[in-house]
Amino acid sequence: MREDTAQEQGLDLEPPVRMEEEMEVMEEREVEERVVEIEHPLPCLSESDTQGIIKGRDLFGYVGIEAVLDQMRRKTMKAGFEFNVMVVGQSGLGKSTLVNTLFKSKVSRKSCTPNYEEKISKTVHLQSVSHVIEEKGVKMKLTVIDTPGFGDQINNENCWEPIVKYVNEQYEKYLKEELNVNRKRRIPDTRVHCCVYFLPATGHWLRPIDVEFMRRLGKIVSIVPVIAKADTLTLEERLEFKQRIRQDLQANGIRVYPQKEYDEDAEDRILNDKIRENIPFAVVGTDKEHQVNGNKVLGRKTKWGIIEVENVAHCEFAHLRDLLIRSHLQDLKDVTHNIHYEAYRVKRLNESNANGLALSPLTLENGTLEKSDAESHL
Fold it and tell me: Where does this chain mainly localize (predicted)?
């Protein structure tokens, strides 16, 4: 009776077996669709996965994201760059000549001072000279900080203190500008980005003054050691001297640039390992040109021939130039800001939190106060 009634009402009753078969077919289709989704995931992001990568082949058309690089390039070229390099070493090691050779222009303190006469300073005092160098539309404000009087005295005890004080003063200036309520849109950067330390070509071990200076300064600034006037050593003597210096640096725990702990990835590690193998750089500097095989080259003329400054077979000046300018200039600035300045900033803010809201006067390592900073507090 129930079947007759259902047929009269237009209902089509199917046997239970057929319904179960259709349910199994539907479940198999759902499983196949899930497998297809797993094998070919869609580029859109789900709620659980917010770090998906959408590459160019997944986009519907050209978006123009790469134009950001052109925008950054134009803004940076308009603003220009700042680079501050300090040269430290005894008088007569060719610091001014090497700086002029690096930038192929008269940028050293001696070259910019008319009627300059070399005099041995009784104390270490720092002098800085700034220039704006432009090459192919790129402007760079270069500041060279010289340290006349360093290591020239009979008693060189604590001769590094004025240099430590100067480096910390530049960090303090930047920190105060940063903490101002109405600070400048672009804070002038006078921090020392690199310190080129000149070692005399003695062929022996590092002197106590060299060890003490690099041990102290290596904690607050990036140091690049170089062997000055390396043409006074034979190739065998140069190689032995470099090995002894590397042993001294490791034995005394001296940190020179580039440090292994700052390598960001495997590619940087490979490049920096090659640089670390050449440290310290054996360099020769000159601003005079000579004819070699019909070409003008920078070099030093001797009775035995011409020592070409940019020839890697003669000296390692090209490696030093590539490190400071062509490959690691921006990294030197980043290490200064993110490592050395950040460590100084944390230290000073911790001191201010311990003493109150205002920054306490800046002190040297021996505990003496600086007059300029003791008068003014934030």
Answer: cytoplasm
